[in-house]
Design a protein that fits this description.
Layout (H helix, E strand, L loop, with lengths): L12 H13 L8 H30 L3 E5 L3 E4 L2 H7 L3 H10 L4 H5 L5 E3 L3 H15 L4 E6 L7 E5 L2 E5 L11 E13 L2 E3 L9 E3 L2 E13 L6 E10 L6 H5 L3 H12 L16 H26 L5 H4 E6 L6 H12 L4 H11 E4 L10 E3 H7 L1 H21 L4 H7 L2 E2 L5 E3 H7 L3 E4 L2 H9 L3 H6 L4 E3 L6 H7 L2 H11 L20 H26 L8 E6 L8 H17 L8 E6 L7 H19 L7 E6 L4 H7 L5 E4 L11 H7 L3 E4 L5 H8 L5 E2 L4 H9 L4 H6 L2 H11 L12 H8 L7 H19 L2 H14 L5 H13 L6
Parallel strand pairs: 1-4, 1-12, 4-11, 12-13, 13-17, 17-18, 19-20, 19-22, 20-21, 22-23, 23-24
Antiparallel strand pairs: 2-3, 5-6, 7-10, 8-9, 10-11, 14-16, 15-16
Helix pairs in contact: 1-2, 6-33, 9-11, 11-12, 11-14, 13-14, 20-21, 21-32, 22-23, 22-29, 22-31, 29-30
Length: 813
């Protein structure tokens, strides 16, 4: 692509902003406040991105390039202005323009609502990957849903989580481009008719139809003019549908009709990991998958006018099983709508799709009742049965007469109510399947997908997750970024692997000092945020101990709380000992229906109430819970963390990505031998990370040996004291039994995630953390070595691997 002079590049930015204030926003430039300025800045950025986009699209169309399509129910994008300005190299000019309006750029940027179209790790990964695809110049599209309401906003009332809707589009968004004219019909329900005449395709007599309308977001690449596209679908009632009711004056009925269709893209299901199993969720999955596949086929047809080369031109990636129905839908579109023979269509489908798994936990694997699928997608159920039939013929040929292996591999789980196994559909319909860390990928082929791996060993690979250094280092931590530039040059900004040149600087006392000063400034900033959001004063000189992620039993926030309570009790027992001052920081949302997770949030608040107000503690321990964890809040937290808590039961966290963001910003990890922690350890070195606790095989062995938490507690007075304090109401004096349930789940409920088994090892690791903290130079040295070791955890590295090994795609300049 040629470099065009652009109307909004540096000198013209200020002018563009004045122009948009007056002509687009409709405000006198002198009277614009931060929200108006935000709107005008966004318009200026949008204009330049649009120019790059149009140029790139034209070039890709002209060259009929091979493209990748990333299908994901979630894209947890956060804010876009800062990222857009950075991609255009306009941050300096933008800051100057902001100053001319007597504002800071931060004030202006902070008025932008987060696009919170995701739950957590999986959704944020999709956003980081789009950034990587654009930056590597891959011809690429993300496809998802334009939820009217994103992830709920978390409020805290009297220590309890309350959920409020997230109307992120209420004031409109400057970032979307409605694609008038790009829309596809998506059909549901009804029955299938099979014609008598041979060769005629089956006829799906659907019961309902909704229109999927395209809304695009430009995804800027960094250090390139290339951009990527995120296309989100909104559900709309077909124009004619409500006319009858409307014309007869029955507006209530007309509205009801409309809602029945449009509710599909209303709200994101706030459940991570445990499938909701609701009909509306299945409709959402099919809605966006079908619209996306129709869109892909339309683009392909326009450029090629044939489908026999589809797999040469198109790679479609399934982000978990949520778009799994796409395997059946592509077969339906090719066979029923475009007259392709079944065998040819199947060969194409298998070459087009690839699939990433994000969880090992069997209860989190998505399945849908056959009866529900029959009701919502009757033709797809037929197609799935036929795929399954052909597949089981292969299984029979491979392991003749082995009924057990047939039952285990079948796309249909027949053990109770018959259910479609979406992961099996993905595996059978894809040419590559990957896990998201070395351990996770290894466990996949040795446990949940072992039979498939025996059948198709080459299908299974690992691609370890990564995060975008643009948002998570350059934008979130400009202080550290400048320090890195000074030490090792700016090459790391284009190639994160170059961070390894930082290692020698860990030995430089002057550099360590400057590193600590940057960290301290970031901590002061976070301390102000904590004061605003939690009304708790915390000391920026204390150790900032951070656990931020969805609240989940397997992630073991409760283990962190148990240790915090143990520390509190120890401080009271030995008030004059040399305690390292700590601020224990939590943030994260609990699924609305997840009672235990909500109880953990309540306990954290109760412990904070008591500890933070106990004068005997003398500020050596503070416990805070930052409400409404989001991408934007994470951008304030990551740069300010000293200690990163990654303490899931070994074998449960597929990868983790917060662990990468924190280490990249110079936090030391205290963590289990789990997910990507293992690879972080390999890259930063055993001496620069605090790994503790049972490893995956030991977890299995402990459970197999008949783990008895009660026994353990009887023999351990420290744990006993902690549990008794919590259970007896030491932190909930107004309702002493409030936290009994949590304690009972450990003592009597089997402690499934082995908190008590790991407690002593965890506490010992925490003591080693304290010891190191007492030597600030030694701490700084290790923190710097963590940054130096994180080059491999860039989303660019992950995307490079996908492009090479899965999508067979090359970047363009
Ligand atoms: C499925 C069906 C119905 C309703 C909801 C869902 C659903 C939604 C979200 C299931 C799972 C999720 C999200 C899972 C997730 O975020 N997994 C995380 O993915 C990260 C990126 O690979 C990993 O780093 C984390 O380890 C993993 O937990």
């Amino acid at each position: 692509m040629t470099h065009q002079p652009s109307p909004t590049l540096p000198a013209a930015l200020a002018k563009a902003i004045e122009h948009h204030l007056l002509h687009t926003v409709g405000v006198a430039p002198g009277e614009a406040g931060p929200p108006e300025l935000m709107a005008a800045f966004a318009q200026a950025v949008r204009a330049e991105l649009s120019r790059r986009w149009v140029a790139g699209e034209a070039a890709d169309r002209r060259d009929r390039v091979r493209r990748v399509y990333y299908l994901s129910m979630e894209f947890l994008i956060g804010r876009s202005l800062g990222n857009g300005l950075q991609a255009l190299g306009l941050q300096g000019e933008a800051a100057t323009s902001a100053a001319e309006h007597a504002r800071t750029l931060e004030d202006i940027e902070s008025t932008e609502p987060d696009a919170g179209l995701g739950n957590g790790g999986l959704g944020r990964l999709a956003a980081c990957f789009l950034d990587g695809m654009a930056t590597l110049g891959l011809p690429s599209y993300g496809y998802g849903i334009r939820y009217e309401f994103g992830m709920f906003a978390q409020g805290i009332q009297a220590g309890r989580q309350v959920e409020r809707p997230d109307p992120w589009l209420a004031d409109g968004t400057p970032w979307e481009f409605p694609r008038i004219g790009v829309h596809h019909p998506v059909r549901f329900g009804g029955w299938v008719e099979h014609s008598e005449s041979p060769g005629a395709p089956p006829l799906w007599r659907h019961a309902a139809e909704v229109d999927a309308k395209a809304f695009d977001h430009v995804v800027p690449g960094h250090g390139t003019e290339r951009v990527s596209t995120l296309r989100l679908w909104k559900a709309a009632a077909p124009a004619q549908i409500d006319l009858t009711a409307f014309n007869s004056g029955d507006y209530a009925r007309a509205a009801e009709f409309k809602n029945q269709f449009e509710n599909i893209s209303w709200v994101l299901y706030p459940n991570d990991s445990t499938p909701a199993g609701r009909e509306l969720r299945l409709r959402q999955e099919y809605f966006f998958t079908s619209a996306s596949l129709q869109d892909i086929l339309a683009r392909h047809w326009l450029e090629h006018g044939r489908f026999d080369n589809l797999a040469d031109q198109v790679a479609i990636h399934l982000n978990d099983t949520h778009p799994a129905i796409g395997v059946a839908e592509l077969m339906r579109l090719l066979v029923d709508e475009h007259g392709v023979a079944w065998a040819d269509a199947w060969a194409t489908t298998r070459r087009v799709f690839s699939y990433t798994n994000h969880t090992l936990m069997p209860e989190a694997l998505e399945t849908w009742p056959v009866a529900l699928m029959q009701h919502v997608l009757p033709r797809h159920l037929e197609i799935i049965f036929r795929i399954n039939h052909d597949f089981l013929v292969l299984v029979e040929a491979t392991w003749p007469g082995d009924g057990d292996v047939q039952r285990r591999l079948s796309l249909i789980d027949e053990s109770g109510e018959r259910r479609v196994r979406m992961a099996h559909l993905c595996i059978v319909g894809s040419h590559k399947v990957n896990g998201v860390s070395a351990l996770h990928s290894d466990l996949l082929v040795r446990t949940v997908f072992a039979d498939f791996a025996r059948l198709w060993p080459d299908r299974f690979i690992n691609v370890t997750n990564g995060v975008t250094p643009r948002r998570w280092l350059m934008q979130a931590n400009p202080g550290l970024s400048t320090l890195l530039d000074d030490a090792i040059g700016t090459g790391w900004r284009r190639d994160l692997a170059k961070l390894d040149a930082l290692a020698p600087w860990a030995e430089d006392a002057d550099f360590r000092q400057r590193f600590l000063e940057v960290k301290r400034a970031n901590k002061r900033h976070l301390a102000r945020t904590i004061d605003t959001l939690c009304h708790v004063a915390v000391d920026p000189a204390s150790l900032f101990d951070v656990q931020v992620k969805r609240i989940h039993e397997y992630k073991r926030q409760l283990l962190n709380v148990l240790h915090t309570v143990a520390r509190y009790r120890a401080i009271l027992a030995e008030p004059d000992a040399d305690w390292v001052p700590r601020t224990v920081i939590f943030a994260g949302k609990a699924a609305s229906s997840y009672h235990t997770a909500k109880q953990v949030i309540r306990l954290i608040h109760d412990v904070g109430q008591v500890v933070n107000h106990d004068v005997r503690v003398r500020d050596r321990l503070k416990v805070v819970f930052l409400p409404n964890y989001s991408v934007s809040l994470a951008e304030a937290i990551m740069p300010a963390a000293d200690l990163s808590e990654q303490i899931s039961t070994a074998g449960t966290e597929a990868s983790g990505t917060g662990n990468m963001k924190l280490a990249l910003n110079g936090a030391l990890t205290i963590g289990t031998d789990d997910g990507a922690n293992i690879e972080i350890r390999q890259h930063v070195g055993d001496d620069n990370i605090f790994i503790f606790g049972l490893r995956t095989p030991e977890v299995a062995a402990t459970r197999a040996a008949g783990y008895q938490p009660l026994r353990l507690v009887e023999a351990n007075p420290r744990v006993r004291g902690v549990l008794e304090a919590i259970a007896s109401g030491a932190f909930s004096p107004d309702e002493p039994a409030r936290h009994r349930g949590l304690v009972d789940s450990l003592l009597w409920g089997g402690d499934h995630y082995l908190l008590l088994a790991d407690f002593e090892a965890y506490a010992a690791a925490q003591s080693r953390v304290d010891d190191l903290w007492r030597d600030p130079q030694a701490w700084a040295r290790k923190a710097i070595l963590n940054v130096a070791g994180m080059g491999a955890f860039s989303a660019d590295r992950s995307i490079g691997e996908y492009a090479r090994e899965v999508w067979h795609l090359e970047g363009r300049r």
